[in-house]
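In the previous lecture we treated proteins in isolation. Real proteins rarely work alone, and many bind small molecules. This record shows how such a complex is specified: first the sequence, then the SMILES for zinc ion.
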Amino acid sequence: MKIIYDEDIPQDIRPSIEEVIKESITEPCECGCTEVYVSLHAPGSIDVKCYDCGTSFFELEMEEEEELSEI
Ligand SMILES: [Zn+2]
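The predicted 3D structure, ligand included, written as tokens:
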């Protein structure tokens, strides 16, 4: 899985996001794309989707302590 981060995603939380993605996404998207795009969906809310077709894999919430929790 290749992970592409939107520039709005803070550098210091990227390693945590990467961990969650590696645990959660074990297969490529239905469209066959193996690139994942991480962007801010709303303040504090991170959207993880297919880079190619835009299918959303899951969303993450950025908490105050900068811990991530899967919704
Ligand atoms: Zn796709």
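Summary for your notes: The radius of gyration is 11 Å. The first strand starts at residue 2 and ends at 5.
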